[in-house]
Amino acid sequence: MFIRNAWYVAAWSAEVVADRPFARTLLEEPVVLFRDPQGRAHALADRCPHRFAPLHKGDVRDGTVGCAYHGLRFDGTGRCTLNPHGDGRIPEAARVRSYPVLERYGAIWIWMGEPARAEGAPAALPDFSFVDPEHNEVSTGYLLTHAHYQLSADNLLDLSHFQYLHPDTLGSPAIAGDPGRFSESGETVRSHRRTEAEQLPSFIARAFGVPDGMCVDRRFEVRWDPPGLMAIDIRVAPTGVTYGRESRSAHLLTPETSASTHYFFAFGLPKTLGPAARTLVDYALAGLVTPFRNEDLPMLEAQQAALGDSGFWERQPVLLPIDGGAIRARRIMERKLAEEAQCSNA
Hints:
Blueprint (H helix, E strand, L loop, with lengths): L6 E6 L9 E5 L2 E7 L5 E5 L14 E2 L2 E3 L6 E3 L4 E3 L15 E2 L1 E4 L2 E5 L24 E10 L3 H9 L4 H4 L15 E5 L2 E12 L2 H6 L7 E11 L3 E10 L6 E13 L2 E11 L4 H33 L16 H22 L1
Antiparallel strand pairs: 1-11, 2-3, 3-4, 4-9, 5-6, 6-7, 7-8, 10-11, 12-18, 13-14, 14-15, 15-16, 16-17, 17-18
Protein backbone atom coordinates (compact mmCIF):
# COMPACT_ATOMS: atom_id res chain seq x y z
CA MET A 1 0.00 0.00 0.00
CA PHE A 2 2.80 2.44 0.90
CA ILE A 3 6.50 2.63 0.10
CA ARG A 4 8.15 2.50 3.51
CA ASN A 5 11.84 2.70 2.68
CA ALA A 6 11.71 6.36 1.76
CA TRP A 7 11.80 9.77 3.39
CA TYR A 8 8.48 11.48 4.05
CA VAL A 9 7.83 14.88 5.59
CA ALA A 10 6.41 14.34 9.07
CA ALA A 11 6.06 18.03 9.98
CA TRP A 12 7.42 21.46 9.29
CA SER A 13 10.25 22.16 11.72
CA ALA A 14 8.29 24.99 13.34
CA GLU A 15 5.43 22.62 14.21
CA VAL A 16 7.57 20.64 16.67
CA VAL A 17 8.53 22.86 19.59
CA ALA A 18 10.76 22.25 22.58
CA ASP A 19 8.23 21.93 25.39
CA ARG A 20 5.50 19.59 24.15
CA PRO A 21 4.99 16.49 22.01
CA PHE A 22 3.43 16.65 18.55
CA ALA A 23 1.18 13.90 17.16
CA ARG A 24 0.53 12.96 13.55
CA THR A 25 -0.64 9.79 11.80
CA LEU A 26 1.73 8.80 9.00
CA LEU A 27 1.20 5.82 6.68
CA GLU A 28 -1.62 4.73 9.02
CA GLU A 29 0.76 4.66 12.02
CA PRO A 30 0.30 7.11 14.94
CA VAL A 31 3.62 8.88 15.56
CA VAL A 32 4.72 11.30 18.27
CA LEU A 33 7.48 13.83 17.58
CA PHE A 34 9.45 15.77 20.18
CA ARG A 35 12.75 17.58 20.69
CA ASP A 36 15.57 16.89 23.12
CA PRO A 37 17.44 19.66 25.03
CA GLN A 38 19.82 20.07 22.07
CA GLY A 39 16.88 20.75 19.78
CA ARG A 40 17.18 17.47 17.88
CA ALA A 41 13.91 15.97 16.67
CA HIS A 42 12.88 12.40 17.55
CA ALA A 43 9.98 10.24 16.42
CA LEU A 44 8.40 7.35 18.30
CA ALA A 45 5.33 5.18 17.89
CA ASP A 46 2.59 7.09 19.69
CA ARG A 47 1.64 4.29 22.09
CA CYS A 48 2.94 3.47 25.53
CA PRO A 49 3.74 -0.29 25.73
CA HIS A 50 2.19 -0.48 29.21
CA ARG A 51 -1.52 0.26 28.69
CA PHE A 52 -1.31 1.69 25.16
CA ALA A 53 -2.02 5.31 26.09
CA PRO A 54 -1.01 7.84 23.40
CA LEU A 55 2.33 9.35 24.36
CA HIS A 56 1.48 12.69 22.81
CA LYS A 57 -0.91 13.29 25.72
CA GLY A 58 2.09 13.44 28.04
CA ASP A 59 4.92 15.95 28.44
CA VAL A 60 8.49 16.48 27.23
CA ARG A 61 11.26 16.77 29.81
CA ASP A 62 15.04 16.24 29.74
CA GLY A 63 15.02 14.63 26.32
CA THR A 64 12.21 12.21 27.12
CA VAL A 65 8.49 12.01 26.52
CA GLY A 66 6.33 10.93 29.44
CA CYS A 67 3.17 8.87 29.46
CA ALA A 68 0.31 10.84 31.01
CA TYR A 69 -1.36 7.67 32.28
CA HIS A 70 1.24 6.08 34.60
CA GLY A 71 4.35 8.24 34.26
CA LEU A 72 6.73 5.97 32.31
CA ARG A 73 9.25 7.97 30.29
CA PHE A 74 10.95 7.18 26.96
CA ASP A 75 13.98 8.70 25.28
CA GLY A 76 14.52 9.33 21.57
CA THR A 77 15.64 5.75 20.95
CA GLY A 78 12.35 4.44 22.38
CA ARG A 79 14.05 3.08 25.53
CA CYS A 80 12.14 3.43 28.81
CA THR A 81 14.23 5.57 31.16
CA LEU A 82 11.89 5.77 34.15
CA ASN A 83 9.39 3.49 35.84
CA PRO A 84 8.12 5.49 38.85
CA HIS A 85 6.35 2.49 40.41
CA GLY A 86 7.55 0.07 43.08
CA ASP A 87 11.29 -0.61 43.00
CA GLY A 88 11.62 1.22 39.66
CA ARG A 89 12.71 -1.84 37.75
CA ILE A 90 12.24 -1.31 34.04
CA PRO A 91 10.92 -4.36 32.16
CA GLU A 92 13.04 -5.35 29.21
CA ALA A 93 10.00 -5.09 26.92
CA ALA A 94 9.33 -1.49 27.97
CA ARG A 95 10.42 -0.04 24.65
CA VAL A 96 8.68 1.98 21.95
CA ARG A 97 9.48 1.78 18.26
CA SER A 98 11.65 4.69 17.14
CA TYR A 99 11.93 6.00 13.59
CA PRO A 100 14.95 7.56 11.86
CA VAL A 101 14.47 11.29 11.31
CA LEU A 102 16.46 14.10 9.77
CA GLU A 103 15.85 17.83 9.62
CA ARG A 104 16.42 19.54 6.30
CA TYR A 105 14.85 22.28 4.20
CA GLY A 106 12.82 23.51 7.16
CA ALA A 107 11.08 20.15 7.61
CA ILE A 108 11.38 17.04 9.76
CA TRP A 109 11.65 13.96 7.56
CA ILE A 110 10.81 10.46 8.77
CA TRP A 111 11.79 6.99 7.52
CA MET A 112 8.98 4.50 8.19
CA GLY A 113 10.76 1.42 6.84
CA GLU A 114 13.85 -0.58 7.78
CA PRO A 115 16.06 1.70 9.93
CA ALA A 116 19.32 0.31 8.55
CA ARG A 117 18.37 1.38 5.05
CA ALA A 118 17.98 5.01 6.15
CA GLU A 119 21.66 5.43 7.04
CA GLY A 120 22.94 6.24 3.56
CA ALA A 121 19.68 7.64 2.24
CA PRO A 122 19.79 11.34 3.30
CA ALA A 123 22.00 12.18 0.32
CA ALA A 124 19.27 10.84 -1.96
CA LEU A 125 16.76 13.51 -0.95
CA PRO A 126 15.80 15.69 -3.94
CA ASP A 127 16.99 19.29 -3.86
CA PHE A 128 14.63 21.65 -2.08
CA SER A 129 17.32 24.14 -1.09
CA PHE A 130 15.15 27.00 -2.36
CA VAL A 131 12.97 26.56 0.74
CA ASP A 132 15.87 26.19 3.17
CA PRO A 133 15.15 28.96 5.72
CA GLU A 134 18.85 29.55 6.37
CA HIS A 135 19.27 31.30 3.03
CA ASN A 136 15.72 32.04 1.94
CA GLU A 137 12.60 33.81 3.03
CA VAL A 138 10.14 30.94 3.21
CA SER A 139 6.39 30.79 3.68
CA THR A 140 4.98 27.36 4.56
CA GLY A 141 1.50 25.88 4.59
CA TYR A 142 -0.30 22.65 5.36
CA LEU A 143 -3.63 21.11 4.41
CA LEU A 144 -5.16 17.70 5.10
CA THR A 145 -6.70 16.19 1.98
CA HIS A 146 -9.26 13.39 2.25
CA ALA A 147 -7.98 11.62 -0.84
CA HIS A 148 -5.18 9.21 -1.79
CA TYR A 149 -1.86 10.98 -2.10
CA GLN A 150 -1.34 9.88 -5.71
CA LEU A 151 -4.49 11.74 -6.70
CA SER A 152 -2.78 14.87 -5.38
CA ALA A 153 0.36 14.02 -7.36
CA ASP A 154 -1.76 13.53 -10.51
CA ASN A 155 -3.29 16.95 -9.89
CA LEU A 156 0.07 18.72 -9.60
CA LEU A 157 1.71 16.90 -12.52
CA ASP A 158 -1.09 18.01 -14.85
CA LEU A 159 -1.51 21.77 -14.68
CA SER A 160 -3.90 21.81 -17.64
CA HIS A 161 -6.66 21.75 -15.02
CA PHE A 162 -5.80 25.38 -14.18
CA GLN A 163 -7.96 26.53 -17.08
CA TYR A 164 -11.05 24.70 -15.88
CA LEU A 165 -10.80 24.35 -12.10
CA HIS A 166 -9.16 27.74 -11.45
CA PRO A 167 -10.38 30.06 -14.24
CA ASP A 168 -10.40 33.18 -12.06
CA THR A 169 -7.18 32.66 -10.08
CA LEU A 170 -4.51 30.49 -11.70
CA GLY A 171 -5.74 29.65 -15.18
CA SER A 172 -6.59 31.18 -18.52
CA PRO A 173 -7.94 29.93 -21.87
CA ALA A 174 -4.36 29.63 -23.15
CA ILE A 175 -3.32 26.74 -20.93
CA ALA A 176 -5.10 23.75 -22.44
CA GLY A 177 -3.71 24.55 -25.88
CA ASP A 178 -0.41 22.94 -24.93
CA PRO A 179 -0.69 19.17 -24.32
CA GLY A 180 2.56 19.25 -22.35
CA ARG A 181 5.89 17.47 -22.61
CA PHE A 182 7.09 14.81 -20.21
CA SER A 183 10.44 13.23 -19.41
CA GLU A 184 11.73 10.56 -17.08
CA SER A 185 15.28 10.25 -15.78
CA GLY A 186 15.94 7.52 -13.24
CA GLU A 187 13.09 7.91 -10.78
CA THR A 188 12.49 11.60 -11.53
CA VAL A 189 9.58 12.69 -13.72
CA ARG A 190 9.31 16.15 -15.23
CA SER A 191 6.27 17.78 -16.78
CA HIS A 192 6.65 20.89 -18.96
CA ARG A 193 3.98 23.24 -20.25
CA ARG A 194 4.03 26.69 -21.82
CA THR A 195 1.70 29.43 -22.95
CA GLU A 196 2.36 32.29 -25.33
CA ALA A 197 0.74 35.72 -25.57
CA GLU A 198 -1.36 34.88 -22.51
CA GLN A 199 -3.36 37.41 -20.52
CA LEU A 200 -3.05 36.40 -16.87
CA PRO A 201 -5.80 36.50 -14.24
CA SER A 202 -5.30 39.55 -12.04
CA PHE A 203 -4.10 37.50 -9.04
CA ILE A 204 -1.23 35.92 -10.99
CA ALA A 205 -0.50 39.16 -12.79
CA ARG A 206 -0.01 40.98 -9.49
CA ALA A 207 2.19 38.20 -8.12
CA PHE A 208 4.54 38.52 -11.09
CA GLY A 209 4.37 42.30 -11.38
CA VAL A 210 2.59 42.20 -14.74
CA PRO A 211 0.33 45.15 -15.65
CA ASP A 212 -3.28 44.20 -16.36
CA GLY A 213 -3.81 43.40 -20.03
CA MET A 214 -0.13 42.77 -20.85
CA CYS A 215 0.48 39.64 -22.93
CA VAL A 216 3.06 37.29 -21.41
CA ASP A 217 4.63 33.91 -22.01
CA ARG A 218 4.36 31.50 -19.09
CA ARG A 219 6.55 28.44 -18.54
CA PHE A 220 5.75 25.62 -16.11
CA GLU A 221 8.03 22.84 -14.95
CA VAL A 222 6.91 20.24 -12.40
CA ARG A 223 9.49 17.85 -10.93
CA TRP A 224 8.29 14.70 -9.19
CA ASP A 225 10.33 12.22 -7.14
CA PRO A 226 8.99 9.24 -5.21
CA PRO A 227 7.14 8.84 -3.01
CA GLY A 228 5.48 12.26 -3.50
CA LEU A 229 8.10 15.02 -3.46
CA MET A 230 7.41 17.77 -5.96
CA ALA A 231 8.81 21.13 -7.00
CA ILE A 232 7.04 23.57 -9.33
CA ASP A 233 8.85 26.33 -11.22
CA ILE A 234 6.76 28.97 -13.00
CA ARG A 235 8.40 31.68 -15.12
CA VAL A 236 6.57 34.67 -16.55
CA ALA A 237 7.97 37.19 -19.04
CA PRO A 238 6.45 39.72 -21.43
CA THR A 239 5.77 38.03 -24.75
CA GLY A 240 8.95 37.82 -26.80
CA VAL A 241 11.22 38.62 -23.84
CA THR A 242 13.60 35.88 -22.69
CA TYR A 243 13.86 36.74 -19.00
CA GLY A 244 11.17 37.55 -16.46
CA ARG A 245 10.15 36.58 -12.94
CA GLU A 246 10.28 33.11 -11.45
CA SER A 247 8.25 31.44 -8.69
CA ARG A 248 9.50 28.24 -7.06
CA SER A 249 7.42 26.15 -4.71
CA ALA A 250 7.71 22.81 -2.91
CA HIS A 251 4.78 20.38 -2.69
CA LEU A 252 5.39 17.43 -0.37
CA LEU A 253 2.82 14.66 -0.03
CA THR A 254 2.75 12.25 2.90
CA PRO A 255 -0.02 9.65 3.26
CA GLU A 256 -2.01 9.84 6.46
CA THR A 257 -4.07 6.80 5.41
CA SER A 258 -4.90 5.13 2.11
CA ALA A 259 -7.59 7.78 1.64
CA SER A 260 -6.08 10.92 3.21
CA THR A 261 -2.93 12.96 2.64
CA HIS A 262 -0.80 15.48 4.50
CA TYR A 263 -0.05 18.20 1.95
CA PHE A 264 2.93 20.38 2.87
CA PHE A 265 3.71 23.32 0.59
CA ALA A 266 6.15 26.21 0.66
CA PHE A 267 7.42 29.15 -1.38
CA GLY A 268 10.95 30.46 -1.06
CA LEU A 269 12.99 33.39 -2.37
CA PRO A 270 16.62 34.31 -1.56
CA LYS A 271 17.10 36.63 1.38
CA THR A 272 19.45 38.62 -0.83
CA LEU A 273 16.36 40.11 -2.51
CA GLY A 274 15.70 42.05 0.68
CA PRO A 275 12.32 42.79 2.32
CA ALA A 276 10.45 42.23 -0.94
CA ALA A 277 11.21 38.50 -0.73
CA ARG A 278 9.17 38.14 2.47
CA THR A 279 6.23 40.02 0.97
CA LEU A 280 6.26 37.99 -2.23
CA VAL A 281 6.40 34.52 -0.62
CA ASP A 282 3.61 35.41 1.81
CA TYR A 283 1.48 36.69 -1.06
CA ALA A 284 2.17 33.57 -3.14
CA LEU A 285 1.28 31.24 -0.29
CA ALA A 286 -1.94 33.07 0.56
CA GLY A 287 -2.91 32.93 -3.09
CA LEU A 288 -2.27 29.19 -3.39
CA VAL A 289 -4.22 28.24 -0.27
CA THR A 290 -7.51 29.73 -1.45
CA PRO A 291 -7.87 27.91 -4.81
CA PHE A 292 -6.44 24.68 -3.45
CA ARG A 293 -8.70 24.60 -0.39
CA ASN A 294 -11.82 25.80 -2.20
CA GLU A 295 -11.38 24.16 -5.61
CA ASP A 296 -8.74 21.40 -5.68
CA LEU A 297 -9.61 19.77 -2.35
CA PRO A 298 -13.31 19.33 -3.12
CA MET A 299 -12.43 17.83 -6.52
CA LEU A 300 -9.82 15.43 -5.08
CA GLU A 301 -12.21 14.33 -2.36
CA ALA A 302 -14.98 13.82 -4.94
CA GLN A 303 -12.58 11.67 -6.99
CA GLN A 304 -11.76 9.61 -3.90
CA ALA A 305 -15.44 9.13 -3.16
CA ALA A 306 -16.04 8.00 -6.74
CA LEU A 307 -13.17 5.50 -6.55
CA GLY A 308 -14.24 4.18 -3.16
CA ASP A 309 -12.15 1.13 -2.28
CA SER A 310 -11.28 0.44 -5.93
CA GLY A 311 -7.77 0.85 -7.24
CA PHE A 312 -7.02 3.47 -9.89
CA TRP A 313 -6.49 0.95 -12.69
CA GLU A 314 -9.48 -1.14 -11.68
CA ARG A 315 -11.71 1.72 -12.82
CA GLN A 316 -10.07 1.61 -16.30
CA PRO A 317 -9.37 5.34 -16.69
CA VAL A 318 -9.42 6.83 -20.17
CA LEU A 319 -5.99 8.35 -20.75
CA LEU A 320 -5.22 11.61 -22.57
CA PRO A 321 -1.87 13.05 -23.71
CA ILE A 322 -1.99 15.43 -20.70
CA ASP A 323 -1.67 12.40 -18.38
CA GLY A 324 1.90 11.60 -19.43
CA GLY A 325 3.56 12.86 -16.27
CA ALA A 326 1.07 11.36 -13.83
CA ILE A 327 1.17 7.94 -15.50
CA ARG A 328 4.97 7.86 -15.48
CA ALA A 329 4.94 8.66 -11.75
CA ARG A 330 2.35 5.96 -11.06
CA ARG A 331 4.40 3.36 -12.95
CA ILE A 332 7.51 4.19 -10.92
CA MET A 333 5.52 3.88 -7.69
CA GLU A 334 4.14 0.51 -8.79
CA ARG A 335 7.66 -0.77 -9.50
CA LYS A 336 8.95 0.42 -6.15
CA LEU A 337 6.03 -1.12 -4.27
CA ALA A 338 6.62 -4.42 -6.07
CA GLU A 339 10.35 -4.30 -5.23
CA GLU A 340 9.62 -3.70 -1.54
CA ALA A 341 7.09 -6.52 -1.46
CA GLN A 342 9.58 -8.87 -3.08
CA CYS A 343 12.27 -7.97 -0.54
CA SER A 344 9.81 -8.43 2.34
CA ASN A 345 8.89 -11.89 1.10
CA ALA A 346 12.49 -12.99 0.49
